[in-house]
Amino acid sequence: MYDVSMSKSRVVKLTEELIKIPSVTKDGNKAITDRLEEIVKSFDFTTERYTFKDRFGTTKHNLIAKLGKGKGGIGFFVHSDTVPVSDDWQGFEPRIEDGLLYGRGSCDMKGPIAAALLAIEDLKAKDLKKPVYFVAAADEEWGLQGAKHITRSKNMLTQDSWPDMGIVTEPTELIPVYAHKGAYHIEVTAHGKAAHSSTDLGKSANFMIAPFLAEMAEFREKLMVDKSYMNFEFNPPTNGLNLVINDYKTAHNVTAAKSTAALNFRTMPNSREQDIADYIEERAKAYGFDFKGGGIEPFYTDKNSEVISLALAATGKKEAMTVPYGTDALMYQPFMDQVVLGPGNIEQAHTVDEFIDIKELEESVEVYRKMVESYSLK
Questions:
Q1: Mean pLDDT within 193-205
Q2: Distances (CA, A) of 288 to 62, 120, 209, 275, 285
Q3: Residue 160 and residue 187 in one domain
């Protein structure tokens, strides 16, 4: 068992241990999930684990753990995967410099995982008035796929045992987050005819789609100034409409047989997201192009909800905030109120020489412990 009196030093050591277990999304997360399951079992949590195949056929692992009986309670929701490391950075060899702990996942999110584990270490089932959960999902970095599988599989959560509230331990510098943007993805495809460009026998899908692209450029300018498409709870308040074009590596002297415009924008409450999607679809179909699209609603928890109040009390912050990036909270929000709350700065996530401030990491153990004690022990 971990000594609570040594929790500050232990959270650094545990973070270092977890960093040393590579769990890059494309490579799989079995080893890190094995270790997480071993730890929570040593805390007397009941565990449930199942696998799924990602889009490349790699087996991925989800872990759900519960301490205590009954329904409701509070849960920590983490993800076990990380983004890759560059060839010139030894990201799985943690180091400490000037009060900062460096290593892949130190911020996103091996450090927050370690803090959550230490916060629940000394809990005893007999003392709990409400259960406590620890849930580690795979493939957050690949479109929240692990969390999506958790919500759709048969497990102890989906069998009517979701906690009353969840803490998603993404890095927020320990400022409670009550909302973040979702996303909407659209693909518009024009079909032409491939031929050698010297023959004039082809039909370029790139030229066909060009007028549509011009309309999208003009539409984006409107979205940047029309406040009815914005939500000023967020910074920036705009939806960030983006465009990427693909003609499938057509040679320079060949007319493109196919050209796809991939559009993406961030969804926010009360920002006319369906109007945006409908307009893009209408314009695409007016040109006779193929259209497919879909999106994820933004994450939003009432600022007056109990989980936000608990987080504010535990952190000593006066107000919760919003962020523009996405988290697994998007998948879990139909089932419970949540707060996104963790040590570390999101600007360090995914970077070369990723780091986390050790003082903030140590503080997060006590923040998480206060939230559990305030809800499940009283």
A1: 98
A2: 43, 57, 10, 20, 5
A3: no
DSSP 273-311: HHHHHHHHHHHHHHTT-EEEEEEEPPEE--TTSHHHHHH
> What contacts 351, CB < 8 A, 6 or more positions away?
none
Summary mean pLDDT of the chain: 95
Q: Are residues 261 and 164 in the same domain?
A: no
* pTM for this model (two decimals): 0.89
Are 268 and 311 part of one and the same domain? Answer: no
Bridge partners (DSSP) of residue 52 are: 60
By residue range, what is the domain housing residue 291? 183-296
Is the Cβ–Cβ distance between 158 and 303 less than 8 Å?
no
Are 37 and 165 in the same domain?
Answer: yes
The pLDDT tens digits of the residues spanning 30-68 come to: 999 999 999 999 999 999 999 999 999 999 999 999 999
Of 296, 328, 352, the position where a domain reaches its end is 296
Is the dihedral angle over the CA atoms 122, 126, 132, 135 positive or is it negative? positive
Percentage of the chain modeled with pLDDT above 90: 95
Of 296, 311, 345, the one marking the end of a domain is 296
Non-local (6+) Cβ contacts of 235 within 8 A are 322, 324
Phi then psi for residue 60, to 5 deg, are: -120, 155
Q: Rounded to 5 degrees, what angle do the CA atoms 354, 356, 362 make?
A: 160
Q: Which helix (H) or strand (E) is 17 found in, with range?
A: helix 7-19
Would you say residue 5 has pLDDT above 60? no
- Residue 128 tokens, joined: 């709990």
Question: Measuring CA to CA, which residue among 76, 49, 60, 63 is closest to residue 141?
Answer: 60
- Count other Cβ atoms within 10 Å, centred on residue 68: 21
What is Dmax (Cα atoms) for the chain?
A: 81
Tell me the residue length of the chain. Answer: 378
141 and 37 share a domain? yes
Measured from the Cβ of residue 182, the count of other Cβ atoms closer than 10 Å reads 19
